[in-house]
Design brief:
By secondary structure, the chain is an alpha+beta fold. It has one domain. The chain contains three helices and six strands. The longest helix is centred in the last third of the chain and has 10 residues. It is globular.
Length: 85
Amino acid sequence: MLTEGNRVKFSDLEFAQLGDGAVGYIREIDSDRAGILLGGAATMASGSRLFCLYNADGTPVSISHSREAALASAGQQELTAMTVH
C-alpha cells in the first residue's frame, strides 16, 4: 500500500484481497461496456447509463439500471459496496 498526499493507493493484488471477498464496488458504465460484459446477450439503447457491481478483484457480478438497484444487488450477494468514480 502506498500513500500519495492524503490518498491511499492499493496494488491490484491488495485491492482484490480487500475485505476477504466481502467487498465490491459499483461503477457507472455505458451501454457499450455493458454489451461487452454481457457478450451481446442483451440489447439496450446506445448511450444508456448503467451501474455495474464488481467484486473487489474486478469480476463483474451484476448490471443494473440504477445505483440503488446495484446497491440492492450487493446486499443480495452479501457484498459491502463502495462507489468508484
